[in-house]
């Protein structure tokens, strides 16, 4: 059971409150999209789901995020252990510049434990396959990660996140810095990842949300306006504001 | 075509164009003159040291000891000072580089609030402190307690001067490492200390090396602090507990002698110092450029 449930979550940057009592649940092996205009708190919400939010100076949270049945904000919960189970892909590709493609793919494994060389190879290949990158890089594994194209770098970052075998993958606008072809490739990938992972994706692109997700959350000013099956949100939303947003009347 | 667009496309009046070009030329010329003025002292120093120093360089210079007071030939070498400089600066690097890097990592990755402000203020103040004060402090403490001038007292005095150089230079480059990389590693479940050690520091690598080179240059060139702590020595000494000479101390000693052959030792020391610093800097540049090429 690898669902993720957010319960009455509040979040602050210093004194300004950016999330107001968010409650929602992402089902096991589904894709949940979070949409909303800039500054509505969707990235912050995502970053609260693996305790990355607190890495920003002055940032804090209140409330619960249940991973399975455990609260990742419980007093005895270790943020490092949480992040190993709940991985994250960022908006801009961020491969480690001092590492090769291979080392980037298994960076999480190398930095958090010791595995025999052969197993590292196996895990790198599996992760690169899963990220749909293996065929393109199998002959350039020793090249620096920064030498790949933008789209390849982003898939390398996805491979890097998958290599540590998390149960949930959080994606923060993973295609917004990429060209249309690379974007399509990432979207296909998300559909494949759904078979084995719970994916939560923040996106600016409503067509993308409609294409890849099973359920969609619409946020405005730090609150959830509507959270339902994607089909319903985009064709028959309950809330007037959701309708205005998904039909492009503001945003 | 609308009149507005047409007006915008009208060529500039000839007079205006010409006056702009003239201003541009005058200003460019002014800047070139400034650059030339700034270069004059540098070139004069380099030429003097090369011309006077090259003559002093021979095998004896590197292998022999300086002449004693009764030596009528007034010639010899500064082998003891070269060894002394190496010993003292090496120990100072061993002390100040880890300390400076640790301080920089603290300031850039962990430091918050008042303590960080105090540490940064201390580093800045030390950076601007006259070196003789560092020498005085070590002289009043270590030299007094051990009842002896010594190479390690010299190294300690140099460490006080080199630590802030390493700290400030390293902190600057650590701050240049994109936050994205730290977050990328943290999100993989890598503990913070390992993120710093395996991602942040390697990414800032070449910048850190430059900072260390700056510190070594500062240490090699230091005289006042060494004078009060290591004192100097006319004989070969390889024990850290005894008074030791350095190249800068020898320059100071021999430049004040009346005999031209002894003054030559000072010029030889000067060119040795300059060449060492130059070779170190160039090596560091080559290493970091090679590394960058490999990555880009």
Secondary structure elements and pairings:
The complex is a heterodimer of chains A (251) and B (296).
Chain A: E1 4-13, E2 16-26, E3 31-35, H1 42-48, E4 59-67, E5 70-71, H2 79-85, E6 86-89, H3 101-105, H4 107-112, H5 117-130, H6 134-137, H7 150-163, E7 168-172, H8 180-193, E8 198-202, H9 206-212, E9 215-220, E10 223-229, H10 230-235, H11 240-246
Parallel strand pairs in A: 3-8, 3-9, 6-7, 7-8
Antiparallel strand pairs in A: 1-2, 1-4, 4-5, 9-10
Helix pairs in contact in A: 5-7
Chain B: H1 3-9, H2 14-56, H3 59-63, H4 79-110, H5 113-127, H6 131-146, H7 151-176, H8 179-186, H9 192-203, H10 205-221, H11 224-227, H12 247-255, H13 260-295
Keyword list:
heterodimer, A: 251 residues, alpha/beta, six-stranded mixed beta sheet, four-stranded antiparallel beta sheet, 11 helices, B: 296 residues, globular, disordered N terminus
- Main sheet characteristics of chain B: none
From the alpha carbons, calculate the radius of gyration of chain B and give it in angstroms.
26 Å
For the largest beta-sheet of chain A, the strand count, sense and barrel status come to:
6 strands, mixed
Structural class label of chain B: mainly alpha
Radius of gyration of chain A: 18 Å
Provide the low-confidence segments of chain A as ranges: none
Helical content of chain B stands at: over 70%
Give the mean pLDDT of chain B.
90
Low-confidence stretches of chain B: 1-5
Structural class of chain A: alpha/beta
Please tally the β strands of chain B and state the result: 0
Strand order within the widest beta sheet of chain A:
6-7-8-3-9-10
Molecular shape of chain B: globular
Oligomer: heterodimer
Overall mean pLDDT of chain A stands at 90
